[in-house]
Amino acid sequence: MTGNTFGTLFRVTTFGESHGPAIGGVVDGVPPRLPLAEADLQRELDRRRPGQSRHTTQRREPDRVQILSGIFEGLTTGTPIGLLIANEDARSKDYGAIKDLFRPGHADFTYLAKYGIRDYRGGGRSSARETAVRVAAGAIARMVLGDAVRIRGALVQMGPHGIDRARWDWDETARNPFWCPDAAAAEAWADHLDGVRKSASSVGGIVEVVASGVPVGLGAPVFDRLDADIAKAMVSIPAVKGVELGSGFAAAARSGLENNDAMRMKDGRPVFLSNNAGGVLGGISTGQDIVVRVAIKPTSSIATPQRTVNVDGAEVEIATTGRHDPCVAIRGVPVCEAMLACVLADHLLRQRAQCG
Predict the structure, then answer these.
(1) How many angstroms separate the CA atoms of 226 and 219, rounded?
(2) Cβ contact 155:55 at 8 Å
(3) Which of 35, 127, 142, 235 is the most buried (most CB within 10 A)?
(4) pLDDT digits (tens, 9 = 90+) for 122-169
């Protein structure tokens, strides 16, 4: 299997399966002499960790990360940083009854068609369990970016229910289980998700990630555009089906005058009067906030019976039991943050290499 590495200078390679003994990764290209400890990574992993409320999967994984290499006396050495996270609460028996069935919405059929073999235990390599390593890598990327760059994410829509942007409060995202910046919306979502779970179904959502303090000049024209790499990073996350920057799809309904970000001079430098571009023009960062929204589909594993086929081609019915997120978008917030951090760290190092 190819395609397990992301990035050019800041490179992240992940390995492992959902129900294997462990998942892990290698982060290469990290500059030397950066202070880094397991606690720095654990802080971000704890934000993604399952089983923290009734609204997420009850799989109890502590997600304790071990740094195996690349650190000496509390500082990065510039060599590859090896990471390992043990799988401690896998229940493979939950999948025994459906191991020969193709679960709707999952990669079961495509993996078997491509490789001729698949790990049916929780989806194996295709499982979102792999994203824990991305979150750890994202924590390292934040160290590369430094304190001047701040990356924050929020869930702004659950199913058909969006937030009121007039009530946006970043501090509120840490006070509810949904990373929601609108306290009133979060309260309504709790009741909505309880109903979804009781109906044996699931729901999707939209995550918005904002990076502030990004310097001007990251990214390159044509194939290495910053927004192109951001889009690829986000769509590489399991269950992501759409990405937009700035005004995104809404730009299609606007005139050029409405959507262009007018400019003026302030304190001797150009400033933008709006940010419909989402912080990127011509594939290069403008210095404004980078604003990314990510559409995440409903969790495919649901207990409601559905029509499918098995490996022998027979038409059958399937109901997927076990421990699953009724809304995977909730734990997708720290994952989207991590992927944006990895892209920005990569492009920051590339900018330094080319332009000094």
Answers:
(1) 4
(2) no
(3) 142
(4) 788 888 889 999 999 999 999 999 999 999 999 999 999 999 999 999
